[in-house]
Amino acid sequence: MVTTALEQAVVAAERLVVDELGPGARLPGETELAQRFGVSRLTVREALKVLAGRGLLDLTRGRRPTVREPDGSVLSGHFALAVRRDPSALLELCEIRRSLEALAAGKAAARPGRAAVAALETAVDRMAAAVALDEPERERRFHEADATFHETLALAGGSRMLSFVLSGFEDALHRSFAASYRGHVARGGGFDEVVAAHRAILDAVRDRDVAGAERAMRAHLRQVERDLRAAIEAAT
After folding, report:
1. Which CATH number fits domain 5-67: 1.10.10.10, 1.10.238.10, 3.90.550.10, 3.30.1490.20?
2. Regarding beta strands 57-58 and 66-67, do their DSSP bridges make them parallel or antiparallel, or are they unpaired?
3. Pair 209, 109: CB distance under 8 Å
4. CB-based contacts of 141: which residues, under 8 Å, 6+ apart?
5. Max CA distance (Å), the chain
6. Contact of 108 with 116, CB cutoff 8 Å
């Protein structure tokens, strides 16, 4: 199999970034990398762009490339594009969330740190406070607190891989939060019940009730699915 100079440089650069350098480290200059990889500086430049596209490097003009902490940002763009093209994909996302976020809730309940519980409490309190506001401020504040709750829960269980996967849904989740909010309004739902659903998850996490946290999350996401269906029907 014939390997192009660019493919050779990408493999060598990825090995350097993943196996030898850690997040935050700066790569050597292009001249040094070209000598090390046995390719031209232009090929090095293109190889680094490939790694940046994979979320492995930060490229800033005038500065040497920096190794990034792995996250789900590359996946996030793909999921966001999918739901932009077909809003009904939000229902498929909700189905995936039922499994992954129930797992995240259970892991958080198994080892609830004080800081995580406090952050979840603050998010729920902010959701409750937002209910009393007028639109559009209510939707904005409610949405922010809702997103913070789910992001905090994903991190609370201490599973880097689970947090990584859930972070890949970030952009699509923000669309899901907005759509479910509209759907909840469309079907005449009260926002106190949404706050109560989040508080039930919080209470189970605080009480170290793993099964209860998983049940509460699945119940909440069934509610979200109903809201999403209402939003999609209202838009068609």
Report:
1. 1.10.10.10
2. antiparallel
3. yes
4. 126, 129, 130, 133
5. 66
6. yes
Reading the block at residue 70, the tokens are: 């792995």
Residues paired with residue 66 on neighbouring β-strands, in sequence order: 26, 58
pLDDT band at 1 (very low <50, low <70, confident <90, very high): very low
What is the overall mean pLDDT for the chain?
88
- The pair phi, psi for residue 57, each rounded to 5°, is -135, 150
Q: Is the pLDDT of residue 2 over 60?
A: no
Architecture of domain 73-235 in this structure: Up-down Bundle (1.20)
At residue 80, the pLDDT reads 79
Predicted TM-score (pTM) of the model is 0.73
pLDDT at 222: 93
Residues ≥6 apart with Cβ < 8 Å to 214: 102, 103, 105, 106, 109
Dist CA 153 CA 170 (whole Å) = 13
**Where do the DSSP E strands lie in the chain?**
57-58, 66-67
